[in-house]
Write a structure and sequence with these properties.
heterotrimer, A alpha/beta, B alpha+beta, C alpha+beta, A: alpha/beta, 8-stranded mixed beta sheet, C: Ubiquitin-like (UB roll), 5 domains, 7-stranded mixed beta sheet, 6-stranded antiparallel β-barrel, elongated
């Protein structure tokens, strides 16, 4: 059981307010020890969730999470916070279904309100071919017990009145895949909740601590070098995004990954008018309205690989054009801010989770544009893998060896954008 | 929007070009092994820094180009027509 | 309401002869042309313009310009209009935003009472359980959302964009920017000068009588210079890689995007005055010194009647002079440059009533003016990679290292009298001109066949320093106040976040949301940093700023979208289809006839008489040269060297991973001339791919590729009477079965049109001819065929009928019956994979797939109950297992009018795909049906007698 310095509840909030006393730190500072049982590289959602589940489910608490900047500053804080499980393949949907289950219980489990709003997730189909793909997904989902179905344009209009279902647009709406459990989360809250939970259970979170090398003896990991000195450890888990191949290179492991920026943007707030998350694969755009009233937009990855998160003007132009194609009435809303995160793209758009040719060096990388929604389940499964030494069924098809064997995951059959 | 100096057309906006990824060399088909072939298909250097990569001037002269670009700063150091090297 | 309008002021922007009527919250108001919405309302005595986001506190004018966080209003159907900037227009319907039930009384202001419980992150700490009530909380919380309203009936925007090619682009039209533009122009550069406000001049505009002469002189020089394009009421929205710069031109509410490749960018954004953090700093009646100077000098509005001024700089001193000139009673001046003098709190209920100063002294006032320093608008510099550096002596951030193509000028760099600012701008502009012209010359040199460029002197100019003036570090007073007005975040909130462990600036920003609202930290960003630093016992230098992201100022989606639309393609026969009742279908970029009323009848007619379909979207590539056969042998999996002149062959193309990528036929029309067809969607992709192999791997081969998709109209004439029909219109070709057999191609004259290509191929499974004619004659040939065949029962058929017929014949469609992982063996074309060829694209993978066996296979499937058509994507399940497991899916399905039963293609796991096997298909409604696997893909005429006849 976690020992939180202070549990969060409406009552404790009132008490603190009344006495005007301060809350304790949500996570603590620790000196970096010279050795840990497990070192996790990357203090984002995946790394912190892994630390949390190592402690919570397996009692492994002598764990360090090493973060070069501040927690949640990479992909975890730059994504569009969409959660869903209506994937195309049985393996994919079973995996993400577990993630949705975890997300549904996370607020209570972490004693931290992550504001998961299950307002439904709608993927629009603009032609026969995409309607066929939607039905494919719906049928696979139903077999896996996931709430997912194809709906008509009239039902689209009822759920999201701002959408133009007339035959005016260049991309008329033929129907949609409707997934009621999908929705949006306050992404930072998930990171902070896991950090607080992992800290309370004994894991050490080291911010501002950059890994500069991985020590390998023979074919075994023995430690890492950091900006604050060396750390001995038999187990290193690479939970980074954007820089995952650079970290893997330190252990002499090559990955089939290309780093691409993925951009997103947010508008000024307006009064609520859009409930579900709206996605169009054909138009490469996804939209949701936050609790604060802003529209959050995302699109497909940038046209060329880069480690730059500076963003581009062309992205906002294309984005706005596509959004207005769907919702012509919002042309007077204003784009407030754009940003970019770095995505690790694999050849089959599936993640790479599992051991590597170097003993003790594990990877949880290659999440492409899906990393946020997978955070809880990835953390849970990676923790189980590291703790038990066996690869859990849910992640069995995501191993690195599949590329050598030419047995790619079938999610590649999905549309280029499948948020 | 980057500026790519096409050797045939001069400085042009990068949206005239399509990016084809980092350069790779095709193994000899007669003798290749699954390991080698799939490394050619899938494994990337993914350098953070200088990268030799291929672009196609699809809305221009339709030539395939080898471009040396810094993947961190997006500075472009050189552009050559592929056929010049391949010939 | 009393008028707060002053007598005529020397530099006022309003036109007192031009009255403008408008509405504010349903009440008629009046103002003058040249007024902003806010100045007109202030002149009319309005003090409260909005309610704050979290606590619903009344808010009034703070800065009276574009960046005022308290002046967001709704204008008609346009939300979030900045009333401190937007000019008044006749008939404007202006309303306060997000207030309920009214601006004067907002019921949700009760939040103020419980304010102490709404600590930062309070959402995260509460509503945790019970889970069942969480969605109710969420719905209620959403009602507190900020911002205006969307009107779904807003007409679609069609805001044109344009490109610009300035040598030097100057962001900021104050004295430094104007001087820089002039100097760059004198150097020979073409200049674009962009100013946020409605007029050039920056702070000189509201600088009172002394500022007028230098401003007039600069304006006159700019006016006279044809090489400077001036954009006012416009903003540089972002600087992107390689100096790609977005500029937004505004015309009232209408915005247009200008995209510029600036060879050199000069940032002359000046300084933005920052608020002071103290209790009551958001009360209506508390303003910054700039607001006072703007209201008095630009709009001739008295901002109050009795004022306390707390000043630490010349801007505050100038405001005092302005106030005195305007006849406002200056009750007290607290000079904050003296350590003994302090501003403690603003007191008032709903608006300012008194000010508490050092020693508990209270002064009655309805206006409190603060002048405590600056936030530097380094946003554009930051986007160019600069990390601003904090200078404690100047109490503000200053530019750091800039790239070669970006320079900073004027107030953003340092301080001084107008002459020094202008001087600095001149030097920067001169140097910017040199750098830009150097780049221009280099680009000209790099452009083959361009005019020779002018030589540019390489000497760079040393830009003299413009030091930042000393300023006391005044961020927060002894009491707690707001650091972010639009987000309702107080100093104590930031401090609490630090105490809770959110101790880097980025974490505290995200936790408190300070600087994340519409003002983006432009006013108070540095205050948040200072408060954070104090709480974390760190320096401001070490704490640093958060990253500024584009755009500099929000842009409407309409302006970003512009009028660009994705292209649509029509065949030359499109008008005929429309006139003849075709139902259109969008197929990729093409609009095609789906059917002409009844696809089944179209099928039956084609199978018994003759049908004609417009096949123009087919990809078509003309291939010429001695080595075309070598290329075909490489890009297709099958063998091509034996293809004789006059023959046509089908082939499948695979990528290097063995995955089917396209298919089609290629005809050899002459010894060195070939004609390739591809799928409609693959036309461009295949052409590029051929050129890629040719240029990168086979540069010595003699092959020229030309895409001719739009050059030829294509139509397929299919059915038992198609030969008879074609014989009536074609000449210079022998169509007899002996001379022109199946899988042959000829160049012929059709309906008098020479150079047509006829391919005898059979996607529909019938005797059929694909006729390709020069596009300009497409409609003529189409009409001629219909006319000639009227007695043969000719009728057009659409895409749907073709899909039925190809399915009856068992032809797969790339991308429908295959997916991104389907290799050639899986698709069932193993017979076309010639692994004894030395090399071809994807060969190793196909060799190995052949050896190990494909894990899945494409099969033809017939439901046992032929009246049921399982929808495409229906899953095939293994009903033997307890939990239904998918073992495949239906990829294509139709009711066959020819066979009178349902037919399918399906991908199944190989062990289940043997001919004769019975499989279980789960229909979307949940019912299972049985279906039988056929021995081959063909449902109709497996021997191909119709085809070869």
């Amino acid at each position: 059981m976690a020992r939180y310095p202070s549990r969060y509840s409406a009552l404790s909030l009132l008490r603190k307010g009344a006495t005007r006393s301060n809350w304790p730190r949500a996570w603590r500072h620790h000196e970096l020890k010279s050795s840990y049982d497990v070192v996790i590289i990357g203090g984002g959602l995946h790394g912190l969730a892994t630390a949390y589940y190592l402690a919570r489910n397996h009692g492994i608490t002598n764990v360090a999470v090493l973060e070069k900047a501040y927690i949640g500053g990479g992909g975890s804080g730059r994504n569009t916070a969409i959660v869903r499980s209506n994937y195309l393949t049985p393996e994919g949907s079973a995996f993400y279904d577990r993630s949705v289950q975890l997300y549904e219980g996370l607020t209570e489990d972490l004693n931290f309100n992550i504001m998961f709003e299950q307002r439904g997730h709608m993927t629009l189909a603009h032609n026969d071919a995409s309607l066929r793909t939607m039905r494919w997904r719906a049928e696979v989902n139903k077999l896996g017990g996931i709430d997912s179905k194809v709906i008509s344009p009239a039902e689209v209009k009822e759920l999201a009145p701002a959408i133009d279902i007339s035959d005016r647009p260049r991309y008329p709406i033929h129907g949609a895949l409707w997934h009621p459990p999908g929705g949006i989360v306050r992404h930072d809250a998930v990171v902070w909740g896991y950090a607080r939970g992992a800290d309370a259970r004994g894991a050490h979170i080291h911010q501002g601590t950059e890994v500069t090398g991985i020590d390998v003896a023979g074919d075994r990991v023995i430690g890492v070098q950091t900006s604050h000195g060396p750390v001995a450890t038999p187990i290193v888990i690479n939970c980074t995004a954007g820089w995952s191949t650079l970290i893997a290179d330190m252990a002499g492991v090559q990955l089939p990954i290309t780093t691409r920026p993925l951009q997103a943007a947010v508008t000024e707030p307006v009064q609520p008018f859009l409930d579900p998350v709206i996605v169009s694969g054909t138009l490469h755009v996804y939209v949701s309205q936050t609790a604060r009233g802003e529209l959050v937009f995302g699109a497909s990855v940038d046209p060329y690989s880069s480690y730059s998160s500076r963003g581009s003007l062309g992205f906002t132009e294309g984005l706005a054009g596509h959004v207005l194609e769907l919702m012509p009435g919002i042309s007077k809303m204003r784009l407030l801010r754009q940003w970019a995160g770095l995505c690790d793209m694999t050849p089959d758009f599936g993640p790479i989770i599992g051991p590597t040719p170097v003993d003790g060096f594990y990877v949880d990388v290659g999440w492409g544009t899906y990393g946020f929604k997978a955070g809880p389940v990835a953390g849970e499964q990676v923790a189980a893998m590291v703790a038990t030494g066996a690869i859990p069924e849910l992640i069995a098809s995501f191993g690195l060896e599949r590329f050598e064997e030419g047995a790619l995951t079938a999610e590649k059959g999905a549309a280029a954008v499948g948020h | 929007m980057l500026v790519i100096v096409c050797p045939h057309c001069g400085p042009r906006n990068s949206n005239e070009f399509s990016f084809l990824g980092e350069r790779s060399s095709r193994p000899a088909v007669a003798t290749t092994t699954p390991d080698e072939w799939r490394r050619y298909l899938y494994t990337k250097d993914n350098a953070a820094g200088s990268q030799l990569e291929r672009w196609f001037h699809v809305s221009g002269c339709r030539r395939f180009l080898d471009v040396e670009r810094d993947t961190v700063t997006n500075e472009i150091r050189s552009v050559r027509d592929v056929a010049e090297d391949a010939r | 309401m009393t008028s707060h309008r002053l007598p005529v002021q020397p530099g006022e922007l309003i036109d007192r002869d031009d009255l403008v009527d408008f509405r504010w919250n349903g009440v008629e108001h009046g103002g003058f042309a040249g007024d902003t919405i806010a100045s007109a309302l202030a002149a009319g005595g309005v003090e409260v313009f909005s309610r704050s986001f979290k606590y619903r506190r009344p808010r009034g004018i703070l800065t009276a310009d574009f960046h005022d966080p308290n002046l967001f209003v709704q204008v008609g159907d346009e939300p979030n209009v900045r009333a401190g900037h937007r000019r008044l227009a006749p008939g404007m319907n202006v309303t306060a935003q997000g207030t309920w039930p009214s601006l004067e009384f907002d019921a949700r202001a009760a939040n103020r009472i419980v304010g102490r419980f709404l600590s930062p992150g309070f959402y995260y700490k509460t509503f945790i359980s019970p889970a069942s009530l969480r969605s109710t909380y969420q719905r209620i919380l959403r009602r507190f959302g900020a911002g205006g309203k969307i009107d779904p009936a807003t007409p679609p925007a069609h805001a044109g964009k344009r490109f610009a090619h300035p040598d030097v682009l100057v962001a900021g039209g104050g004295p430094a920017g104007m001087a820089a533009a002039l100097a760059a122009s004198h150097r020979g550069a073409r200049v674009m000068l962009v100013e946020e406000n409605h007029r050039l001049g920056g702070h000189l505009l509201y600088g009172g009588p002394d500022a007028a002469p230098p401003l007039a002189e600069l304006c006159a020089q700019i006016e006279a210079d044809d090489a400077i394009e001036v954009l006012t009421d416009s903003v540089v929205s972002g600087r992107y890689d390689h100096n790609w710069v977005g500029v937004v031109e505004r015309h009232g509410g209408e915005e247009h995007l200008v995209k510029a490749r600036a060879k050199c960018l000069v940032v002359a954004a000046g300084k933005i005055e920052r608020p002071f953090v103290f209790a009551g700093n958001d009360l209506p009646g508390v303003m910054l010194s700039g607001a006072v100077s703007r209201l008095i000098n630009l709009y001739s509005v008295a901002p109050g009647t009795r004022v306390v001024v707390a000043t630490a700089n010349e801007s505050g001193d100038a405001a005092i002079a302005d106030l005195e000139r305007a006849g406002v009673e200056v009750a007290e001046v607290a000079d904050l440059r003296r350590s003994s003098s302090q501003l403690v709190r603003a007191i008032g209920k709903g608006k300012l009533e008194a000010v508490e100063l050092s020693g508990g002294r209270k002064v009655e006032a309805d206006l409190l003016v603060t002048a405590v320093g600056w936030t530097t608008p380094t946003s554009l510099l930051n986007m160019a990679g600069d990390r601003p550096v904090y200078d404690p002596a100047a109490a503000r951030f200053l530019p750091g290292d800039l790239p070669q193509d970006v320079l900073a000028a004027g107030g953003i760099v340092g301080d001084g009298p107008v002459e020094s600012i202008v001087e600095h701008g001149r030097f920067v502009g001169f140097e910017a001109g040199r750098r830009a012209l150097t780049t221009r010359a280099a680009w000209q040199r790099l452009t083959p066949r361009a005019e020779p460029s002018d030589e540019v002197a390489a000497e760079s100019t040393d830009i003299p320093e413009l030091p930042a003036a000393g300023h006391p570090e005044l961020f927060a007073g002894p009491t707690d106040g707001f650091v972010d007005f639009s987000e309702d975040v107080k100093g104590s909130d930031v401090a609490m976040a630090v105490a809770e462990g959110y101790d880097s600036m980025e974490l505290a920003k995200r936790y408190t949301t300070a600087t994340m609202g519409p003002i983006q930290g432009k006013l108070g960003g540095v205050n948040a940093v200072a408060v954070h630093a104090a709480a974390a016992a760190a320096t401001i230098e070490a704490t640093g700023t958060t990253s500024w992201r584009p755009p500099y100022a929000p842009i409407t989606l309409g302006a970003l979208a512009g009028v660009d639309e994705d292209p649509v393609r029509y065949s030359p026969m499109h008008d005929w289809h429309v006139a003849n009742g075709a139902t259109p279908i969008v197929a990729g970029q093409w609009i095609r006839p789906d059917h002409y009323g009844d696809p089944s009848r179209e099928v039956l007619n084609t199978r018994s008489n003759v049908g004609i379909i417009d096949a123009s979207p087919l990809g078509k590539i003309d291939l010429r040269g001695r080595d075309v056969t070598k290329l075909l042998d490489f890009v297709y999996t099958n063998r091509w060297e034996s293809l004789r002149v006059g023959a046509v062959r089908y082939g499948v193309m695979c990528a290097e991973d063995g995955v089917v990528f396209d298919d089609g036929v290629t005809a050899r029309l002459e010894a060195d001339r070939y004609y390739m067809t591809t799928t409609s969607g693959g036309a461009g992709r295949v052409w590029n791919w051929l050129d890629e192999w040719l240029q990168t791997s086979f540069p010595t081969w003699d092959v020229r590729t030309t895409a001719v998709t739009d050059g030829y109209a294509a139509m397929n004439v299919a059915g038992p009477r198609s030969r008879e029909l074609l014989e009536r219109v074609a000449s210079e070709v022998d169509l007899s079965a002996e001379s022109f057999a199946y899988m042959n191609g000829r160049v012929a004259t059709v309906a008098g049109v020479t150079d047509c290509i006829i391919l005898r191929i059979g996607f529909t499974g019938e005797l059929s001819y694909e006729v390709h004619v020069p596009a300009g004659y497409g409609l003529h040939v189409w009409q001629s065929l219909l006319d000639a065949g009227s007695d043969l029962g000719i009728a057009p058929f659409g895409l749907e009928a073709q899909r039925i017929m190809r399915l009856e014949k068992g032809h797969f469609l790339v991308g429908q019956d295959t997916d991104g992982l389907t290799k050639a063996h899986t698709a069932g074309v193993g017979g076309l994979i010639k692994v004894d060829k030395a090399d071809f694209s994807g060969k190793p993978e196909l060799l190995w797939e052949g050896e190990s066996g494909a894990p899945r296979r494409l099969v033809a499937l017939q439901p046992v109950d032929g009246s049921v058509v399982p929808p495409e994507a229906s899953q095939i399940v293994d009903s033997a297992t307890e939990v239904s497991r998918t073992i495949g899916r239906v990829t294509s399905s139709r009711m066959s009018p020819t066979l009178g039963r349902s037919i399918c293609l399906a991908i199944v796991d190989t062990p289940y795909g043997e001919g004769g096997a019975t499989l279980t298909v789960r229909l979307p409604e949940g019912r299972d049906i049985a279906a039988t696997v056929l021995d081959h893909h063909v449902h109709l005429d497996p021997e191909g007698e119709r085809l070869r006849g």
